[in-house]
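Appendix B, example 12.
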Amino acid sequence: MLKYALVMLCLLPTTVLAWDDTNALAVTCSYTHYSSFDHEEATIAWGPERKGEKAHVQKFMRAKSEENTQVIGERDTGDCIFPSGLQVRMKVDVGTAGPGMCGGDPAATMSLWINRRKVATEWFAGYCKEEKEPAVSFKILGAKHLRVEKCHATWKKDDIPELSVCIDLPDLKRYPIDELEYPSAGSKAPVAGEVVIRYGKNEVCREVKNALHKEFTVFNYGADAPGKLQWFEWQDNEVRVAKDFHGYQVGIFDLNNDGRLDRVYAQNYSTNYMIGNHLLVQYGQSNTKLIVPDNPLERAVALPCHIANQNASLNGCAGFGERSPDYDLAIHGTGAKDQAVFRERYTNLTPFRFRGATYLAVTEGLIGKDGYAGVLKIRPDGSAEKTCLLEKIRFHM
């Protein structure tokens, strides 16, 4: 439940919802009719009283002065539509929980569209903030001449006056129409929450899509195997092979699809530095019994590290040594913009079996509401074949 909410104020009696937060935003929309002209205004700022109706589309009628209040919470959309045709839309979303001081209390963000053009994208709207940034406010004046003013204000401290610097935004024509938010006639915008295949025609892609559609985090937790997918058996067996990699579980199965039994150690991380499930693999020499070196580090590869860079040293992989760069794993889709980059320290790998072959599900260790999932197939030579890329359509911000 949101501790911080975005509030939209316009001017009419409403059912009141009270909020206890101290850093809520208010968006004040008002329409006033005079005998010789009309006044249309929307103001977005910090700190006004946080009361109002649930987010909705508020349409102002010509020649009728009105005010209205809307409370915009997580994944809500609020609109003000004025008689002149001026349209103001606001959305709120909450970030993914992650490591760090604010990990359990991620920031809420807000995006703003004016006349179908996005002028602000995901600016801070509440929750925890590790580094204070200037508060941002907007004022939109419509009717005959449209003007958009953006102000940056310092966060108020005891005995220090608040400072504010304001600028006028460029002509709205310089901002492109957001066709994802406002699709053209005859086109269909993707539906938030829908899982789509961005790459891959293999049957396993369709099976994984069905599993992700039912529960997008199915590969991140030890749930029952969905549909025709099969999990491998794991045994608890802590083997401390490196400073951070303890190998809490071990499995004996054919990971690289050469028909031979491999030894696979799995390590689940949940620290400020790493979140996800990584594998340490020793490829075997026999299809009837396990033949690998006794030392778990001998002839071993670390995944996802050695998928992203086969030439990396084991000490250069996350969990095995001290080094700064991540070996990020990129999976490209069919379209030019379809690409998922899985950060090494925040990647979750889940081996599974489908129709006699072994695959690796690649998901984000930082559990979110949506995002990408990949499917790889490890070849006998240890390289990875890109099999599928799937995306859960995000709430557009």
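The longest helix spans residues 203-214. Confidence is low (pLDDT under 50) at residues 1-23.
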